[in-house]
Amino acid sequence: MKVMDCRPDGQGRRVAVALARFNRSVTELMWRGCRATLEEHGVSDITLVHVPGAFELPLTTRWLADSGRYDAVIALGAVVRGETAHFDFISAECTRGLGQVALEARLPVAFGVLTPENGEQALERADPERKNKGREAALAALEMMALRAEIGRG
Question: Is there a catalytic annotation at residue 50?
């Protein structure tokens, strides 16, 4: 029996990060944790792409994936629940779209989109000193790149 349990490794990898500007105080914290983690694991070729908000993340990640320049794409955003149904529409479509990009492009697309109930929860989850969801998204991308390479080796 062969077991594949790949460890995060970014040596020689190219990663693009799509970062939503909406809820910037949250997403910038996520970017800080994500970037530090990528660099800690040896990724030296990082491209940061700013987009207006979470709704624009799927299309941007598709463009990045289709470029053939990256080994993985990380989507970072925050959709904070409000008083209207807008939260439900944006968070659902963002999630669906990012999953679709990953499957169709056959490329690791890490989901780093927060969907908290309020701003306080968002900041807690984004902060590199607390829950550090930017780090988690980066680790997921790193592990999936390593797994893809391992599967390719057979």
Answer: no
